[in-house]
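Technical annex, item 7. During the second reporting period the consortium partners agreed on a shared format for inverse folding records so that results from different sites could be compared directly. Each record opens with the tokenized structure and is followed by the designed sequence. A conforming record, contributed by the partner at site C, is shown below for reference.
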């Protein structure tokens, strides 16, 4: 590699160390790595080949058409790609996997899935990690049981969860409810830490098993659990433990708790004390606490983003410097068409209908038009989805593919990004709904966006809409 520095001919960044000189100029290491890992139809000869070259108009060219005198053909399989010691990275990946998966346990399904990665170089980097090698060897040689329990006991949990998703996708492991599994894991690992006494631990464990877990299981029968439900359940356990510790400090416990104690608990800060309602109600129902009166639930007034602030955010999301395209599109769907991130994350590419210059998205019973210039953002995202170059999601149907196998992005990730941009999620969604019901009848908005008629009627009333409510329309 030359030690010279120059402006890269592709990315135009100055003072970059020159990794390779192609006919169009010097390339930095990053641009060279991309150039020798891009396949498609050559703009010159129109053959499907490796396209490391670039024409003056930016067209991608094969080695022959670009005048690149370098051989990128694998001597083993004949594929044109980046080479390592004369063989392509797929063949090199196969050799590396054979080293770590040479045990008596059949992991051929996982091996084939990994070899279908669009960018094998990224898997080769992943496989350099010692804990990844140890986990693959352990599974292959039977040291780590090929089961959910075996992976749960792995030291490096993130790697184990990533492999778990791949093993489930390839049929080597049965599927399971991961949200419930995460709740069970939290209870087994942390409940003893937060329980004030051994008796409190037994009480909280019963509350977790017979109330919180049963409720999660019941909710999962109707719809997949979202990533916020498990943290909410574990938070209930934490504040329940706080209540028990507070009662002990006053010389009592749950059985001796009086109405005055309970009133004082709910009226003192912090506001998280209100989250013990479910625990106290369960304790009263099961005879573990005297029959006391719980405070009435108070509904807070939700903030609403005004139209000027909403338009400012939409203008900000059009700017590429705000963030990644997929993150900006997700935030745009929140601010423009009032979709919660649980729905946005689960959108599929098939939900986007592109008819010439018209772009629509299927959200409810009908379709919702996406106006320019936001339509162009959605079109670009359909062509530039992330997380498709590894073995995780090579043929993902999701508009926002996740890092786990055959999964979409986590809604919590989209919420975090939107918060970092400075978007108040509740205010943005309420503001969008208020504006939409001012422009259209509430029943039309409900059908287009997948909301209930009652919810849209309430937003129309709060916005002072002149449209007749759905209830009034039905009465006519």
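Designed sequence (site C submission):
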């Amino acid at each position: 590699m030359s030690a010279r520095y120059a402006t890269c001919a592709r990315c135009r960044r100055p003072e970059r160390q020159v990794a390779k000189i192609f006919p169009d100029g010097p390339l930095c290491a990053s641009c060279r790595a991309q150039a020798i890992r891009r396949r498609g139809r050559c703009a010159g000869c129109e053959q499907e080949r490796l396209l490391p070259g670039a024409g003056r108009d930016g067209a991608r060219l094969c080695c022959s058409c670009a005048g690149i005198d370098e051989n990128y053909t694998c001597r083993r399989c004949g594929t044109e790609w980046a080479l390592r010691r004369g063989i392509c990275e797929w063949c090199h990946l196969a050799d590396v996997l054979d080293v770590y998966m040479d045990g008596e346990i059949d992991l051929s399904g996982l091996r084939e899935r990994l070899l279908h990665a669009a960018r094998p170089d990224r898997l080769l980097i992943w496989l350099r990690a010692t804990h990844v090698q140890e986990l693959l060897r352990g599974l292959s040689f039977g040291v780590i049981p090929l089961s959910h329990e075996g992976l749960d006991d792995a030291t490096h949990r993130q790697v184990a969860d990533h492999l778990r998703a791949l093993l489930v996708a390839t049929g080597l492991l049965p599927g399971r409810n991961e949200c419930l599994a995460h709740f069970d894991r939290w209870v087994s690992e942390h409940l003893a830490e937060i329980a004030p006494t051994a008796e409190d631990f037994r009480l909280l464990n019963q509350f977790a098993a017979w109330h919180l877990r049963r409720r999660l299981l019941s909710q999962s029968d109707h719809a997949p659990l979202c990533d916020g439900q498990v943290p909410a359940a574990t938070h209930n356990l934490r504040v329940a433990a706080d209540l028990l510790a507070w009662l002990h400090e006053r010389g009592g416990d749950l059985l001796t708790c009086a109405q005055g104690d309970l009133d004082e608990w709910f009226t003192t800060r912090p506001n998280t004390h209100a989250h013990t309602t479910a625990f106290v109600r369960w304790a009263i129902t099961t005879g573990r606490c005297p029959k006391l009166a719980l405070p009435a639930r108070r509904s807070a007034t939700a903030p609403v983003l005004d139209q000027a602030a909403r338009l400012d955010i939409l203008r900000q999301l059009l700017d590429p410097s705000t963030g990644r395209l997929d993150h900006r599109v997700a935030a745009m769907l929140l601010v423009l068409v009032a979709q919660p991130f649980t729905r946005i994350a689960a959108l599929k590419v098939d939900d986007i209908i592109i008819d010439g210059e018209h772009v629509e998205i299927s959200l409810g019973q009908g379709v919702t038009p996406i106006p320019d210039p936001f339509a162009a953002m959605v079109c670009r995202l359909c062509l530039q989805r992330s997380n498709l170059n590894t073995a995780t999601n090579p043929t993902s149907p999701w508009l926002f593919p996740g890092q786990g196998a055959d999964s979409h992005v986590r809604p919590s990730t989209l919420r975090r990004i939107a918060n970092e941009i400075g978007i108040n999620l509740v205010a943005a969604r309420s503001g969008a709904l208020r504006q939409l019901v001012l422009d259209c009848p509430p029943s039309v908005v409900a059908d287009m966006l997948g909301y209930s008629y009652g919810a849209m009627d309430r937003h129309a009333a709060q916005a002072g809409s002149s449209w007749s409510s759905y209830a009034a329309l039905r009465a006519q």
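DSSP finds 22 helices and 13 strands in the chain. The radius of gyration is 28 Å. All partners now use this format for quarterly exchanges.
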